[in-house]
Amino acid sequence: MTLIIFEKTDQLEGIGYVLFGVASIFVGFFWMNKVLRHLLPSKIVGVTFILFGLHIMDFIIVQYNEEFLILGYMIAAAFEAIITISLVFLNFNYLKELDDITYSKYINLFNNSSDAIILISNEIIFDCNRRAEKIFERSREDIIGHSPMEFSELVQENGRESYDYGTELFSSASEGKITRFDWIHTSASGRKINCEISLFLLDKGEFAAVIRDMTANYAYEEEINFHKYYDAVTHLPKRELFIDRLARFLDERYKQVALIAFNIDNFKEINDEYGHEAGDELLRQVANEVISVFKSEVTLTRLGGDEFVVIMDKLIHKNRIYLPLERIQSVFNSNFEIQGQKVNISVCIGVAFPESETTQPMELLKNSDLALNLAKNKGRGRIEFYSTKEKEVFIARINIERDMRLGIELGEFIPYYQPIVQPHSGEIVGTEVLARWIKKDGSIIYPNTFIPVAEETELINIIGEQILSKACEDCKDLLRDNTDFVIHVNLSPLQLRDNSIITILRDTMEKYEITARHLYIELTETIFIEDAEHANDILKGIRAMGVGVALDDFGTGYSSLSYLAEMQVDTIKIDRSFVVKLPGNQKSRAMMEYIVGLLHDLGYKVVVEGVEEKDQADYLKSIGCDAIQGYYYHRPMSVEKLRKLLIHRRRI
Questions:
Q1: Distance from CA of residue 294 to its chain's centroid?
Q2: Using CA atoms, how far apart are residues 118 and 206, in angstroms rounded to an integer?
Q3: CA distance 379 to 374
Q4: Other CB atoms closer than 10 Å to residue 515's CB: what's the count?
Q5: Where are the alpha helices (DSSP H) in 335-446?
Q6: CA distance 648 to 95
Q7: What is the rounded CA–CA span in Å between residue 211 and residue 337?
Q8: Nearest Cα residue to 574 out of 558, 590, 595
Q9: How far apart are alpha carbons 480 and 563 in whole angstroms?
Q10: How far is CA 476 from CA 206, 433, 469, 550, 648, in A?
């Protein structure tokens, strides 16, 4: 614009410079106030434009009249002084504004931090934030002026006194290191606060402590650890913690240690009747009662289910074990209450002592468990002590069970047959089916060895079904050729507890086309001991199918005369114990004649077992026995031998 004006006329040259100077001043002020006004460089640029405009105006004054040169420079200097002072003032205001912003942000950060912050001078708090007020449950005024030790536990978790430990930490932080440590503070309400603290130096003698409240985290960790090491139902130590304590006691004083294992008799029935919640409540009551009896003298744990173990670690002599045993039994002398019902329970107890100083915790625990199992096998409320002999028996039993399960899979359980003979004609009228366990190596295991274990483990149900099925399969063709022949299959009392036995019998008979008149079920008197009414109901169902029922081993078990008239059976098999002294013993003859006459009068057929001598057979024939069974006639045999025997008899 100035150059254009210059070309038009020299007189207008001054006006052009004036306009250019004014424009520069205007741009300078605009730049300082509108463009990046908070930044110091922006203000410098603005001032530069203003000074440039003033110098141009100075030049105009000089050009117009040199006499005004000094005046022009004075005016320019005045303007520059004003602008410089303004710049300094602006810069001061800017820095002050910047300090105000920084301080405001610091205060905001200080007060709104999620961690507590306390500022300490010469071990006295001179400031704190809002989070510190909340954690300590005290106002800022109640915190300032106090030592942090005043809000701490007297002794920290590491066993150090707070004052001594704190002084050591301040000393470490004064070297310029950030010192991190755990600390327990106490709130105004007395609540323990687990803290994680970072302490660092601000200035000589001044420190900042950043405090993080870890109480909730520690509580969560403690809960996890509790469930890891303590039983959720009874809050007793779990196996891992129990074994750790037992190992320590065995190392320190093994001669004073004993394990007492006990469990609640028929706990399963309690669970079934009242429910698992009630069962858990009973376990809690038992644990609390035993603890209250022993107080802190012993370590009690729940190993699982209803099995508990007590560590006696201060036993002066083994003979003193009877006192704690009496204490445990005393707990169960009174009734427990479940869902408002009084329940009387008893316990079986197994006791084991360390065999030597090298006895390991798991070894001792196994021995106590063995003793407990022996007690349970002998009945309710029993106490058994571990012994090496009993251990050998137990191991043998475990081996039998293991082999038995394998034998079931391999089909090693098969039926053997012992014929039943009509004494007058000598004709074979039937056969009793006997279980035999013949292993793959050819060895034979007899029933008196495996039947007790099979009944204890309830494997007898599977074995019984296999024997029934195989016997019906074996005799399918045999029964077609011997229309009056009957097979007697033994059933365990366990098989007769379940109504499904009727369905099993029906399905097996249909599968092998066995008619009911060819089948007898044999059972022992023990079926009537626990629940005679239920037993008779099952037997009624079996007889309703047309299947005969025989009572085996009569005279060795229940033998109540009052039940003879009510038992749902067709045949009574008299045990061999009544035969041994026949016919020479007069009392044995009198008893046998009385029993046979009574049973006939009640309408039962009579079969006598265990006949081994000719004179025994002749005598029994003379008193009217319906059938005889024993070694005198035939020993148990395989199905192949039975078929050959029957074929031979038919030819004769």
A1: 26
A2: 11
A3: 9
A4: 11
A5: 361-377, 388-410
A6: 128
A7: 50
A8: 595
A9: 36
A10: 103, 14, 11, 21, 19
**Amino acid letter at 421?**
V
How far apart are the C-alpha atoms of 28 and 43, rounded to whole Å? Answer: 8
The per-residue pLDDT for range 331-384, each reduced to its tens digit, is: 888 788 888 888 888 899 999 999 888 889 999 999 999 999 888 888 888 899
Question: Does 557 score more than 70 pLDDT?
Answer: no
CA 337 remoteness from chain centre: 25
Burial bucket for residue 143 (CB in 10 Å: 0-12, 13-18, 19+): buried
How far apart, in whole angstroms, are the C-alpha atoms of residue 388 and residue 328? 25
Phi-psi region of 115 (alpha: psi -120 to 50; beta: other; left: phi over 0): beta
pLDDT at residue 344, as a whole number: 85
Report the SS3 class of residue 487.
Answer: strand
pLDDT tens, position by position, 246-303: 999 999 888 889 999 999 988 888 888 888 888 899 999 999 999 888 877 788 999 8
Whether 508 and 514 have beta carbons less than 8 Å apart is answered as yes
| pLDDT band at residue 37 using 50, 70 and 90 as cut-offs | very low
User: Which tokens in the block code for residue 55?
Assistant: 């110098």
Report d(CA 181, CA 188) in Å as an integer: 22
Among 377, 368, 354, CA closest to 325: 368
Stretch 583-591: mean pLDDT, rounded? 94
pTM of the complete model = 0.56
List Cβ neighbours of 382 (8 Å cut-off, separation of 6 or more): 348, 349, 375, 376
Closest-CA residue to 490 (of 403, 574, 553, 423): 553
Q: Is 550 helix (H, G, I), strand (E, B) or coil?
A: strand
